[in-house]
Amino acid sequence: DQQVKQNSPSLSVQEGRISILNCDYTNSMFDYFLWYKKYPAEGPTFLISISSIKDKNEDGRFTVFLNKSAKHLSLHIVPSQPGDSAVYFCAASASSSASKIIFGSGTRLSIRP
Amino acid sequence: NAGVMQNPRHLVRRRGQEARLRCSPMKGHSHVYWYRQLPEEGLKFMVYLQKENIIDESGMPKERFSAEFPKEGPSILRIQQVVRGDSAAYFCASSTYGTGASGANVLTFGAGSRLTVL
Q1: A102 to chain B: which residues are within 8 Å by CB?
Q2: Rounded Cα–Cα distance for residues A22 and A6 (Å)
Q3: What's the pLDDT tens digit per position in B7-48?
């Protein structure tokens, strides 16, 4: 039972354009959502998070949007840079059970010149 | 200020042997999590521990797998009688938060230990 789903295994975007990564969830108890970035042979690193009381959180080139009614969130990266090429994981947790953070299967983003 | 340290980075075992993976959390972090990433898959939660306590082991296979986080020393993930299906990258993460904390529970991950079972 996949509670956090990233339906696009890969995405290719031209440098300088916007990258949009999508994530859907099924558990309505989730109230915190996070995005992690992972390079090969390294551990995931935290990028940005959002709580369910907000619908948008911005940090530099990265913006996360949350649509609670659709149980959908997205990560926007603009402008996309070559160093953004990595695997991006969406993750979610419920504050009632913050110990278990559920990750999606990841989307491999490739930024082409 | 070292981050989360995992060792070994690579471990090769034959079927039936034991694998021990170690994790030292970030300084000041008292919560440790283990995740497993099978080839071409996402990160699967295995277990969450605090010092000397297993808080949530709902993601651990019922047999052959165990985890501990002793009062002194690193957290250990132990896999007995390994099989080929155990081949994966095992990631440890730590945080300052735990169950019921307010705010997002941001995990800091180690670089992972890649287990290969021959």
Answers
A1: 45
A2: 6
A3: 999 999 999 999 999 999 998 888 899 999 987 788 999 999
